[in-house]
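Quick one:
INPUT:
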């Protein structure tokens, strides 16, 4: 399919799904917010596009395949369509270039096939594949959402979780070797925890508190639960995040 036909299919889907009207409403919001501020001439405008894979595959199979397996290229198709809509309808007066439109594809679901399920133990961590995957499990910790990528990292250590084969042999060996003391295991973990950020052997007390806050659980009433308060003093807020 040519790029032009793919753009036509994207426009038809946006019109039928109501995404085009939502995009127009978002443009009006941005236009009203930045119309009087000349500093926003080259601002980046972020738009979320809700995608139902079943509907779009039924409309156009090749565009649906792009969305499922090459989402970055598919986002560029929607970016071009939205840019043309902005210029044709004069939706944002400050918009100058197509790259000022940031399209984020939000999928309602993925096909219930094994190839779309991500096994955290077997997935190659070389980041060569940039398509969508489904992950299932119990999340016990989550990092803050980054400003630019809008991504976050999740932690799951429950062996009963689907797609989990149990967080390794080296870990079990360490636990057995330190079972004689209730503090050796946690002290070693605190020493190696976040070694990519701070050198091993430093801030062990702080890192131990962070580990304790991650594993703290209670069946008592939430209102009566004793929370673990952590005070961090630093001049580098990015490091703490």
């Amino acid at each position: 399919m040519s790029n032009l036909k793919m753009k036509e299919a994207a426009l038809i889907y946006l019109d039928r799904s109501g995404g085009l009207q939502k995009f127009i409403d978002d443009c009006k919001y941005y236009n009203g917010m930045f119309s009087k501020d000349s500093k926003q001439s080259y601002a980046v405008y972020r738009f979320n596009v809700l995608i139902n894979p079943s509907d779009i595959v039924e409309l156009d199979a090749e565009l649906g395949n792009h969305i499922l397996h090459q989402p970055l290229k598919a986002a560029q198709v929607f970016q071009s369509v939205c840019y043309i809509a902005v210029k044709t309808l004069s939706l944002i007066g400050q918009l100058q270039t197509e790259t000022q439109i940031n399209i984020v594809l939000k999928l309602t679901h993925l096909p219930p096939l094994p190839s779309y399920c991500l096994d955290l133990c077997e997935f190659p961590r070389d980041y060569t594949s940039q398509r969508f995957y489904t992950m299932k499990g119990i999340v016990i910790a989550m990092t803050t959402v980054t400003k630019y990528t809008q991504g976050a990292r999740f932690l799951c250590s429950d062996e009963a979780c689907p797609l989990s084969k149990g967080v390794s042999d080296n870990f079990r060996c360490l636990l057995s070797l330190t079972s004689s003391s209730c503090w050796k295991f946690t002290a070693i973990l605190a020493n190696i925890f976040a070694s990519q950020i701070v050198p091993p052997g430093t801030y062990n007390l702080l890192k131990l508190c962070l580990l304790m806050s991650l594993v703290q659980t209670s069946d008592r009433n939430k209102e009566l639960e004793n929370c673990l308060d952590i005070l961090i003093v630093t001049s580098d807020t990015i490091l703490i995040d």
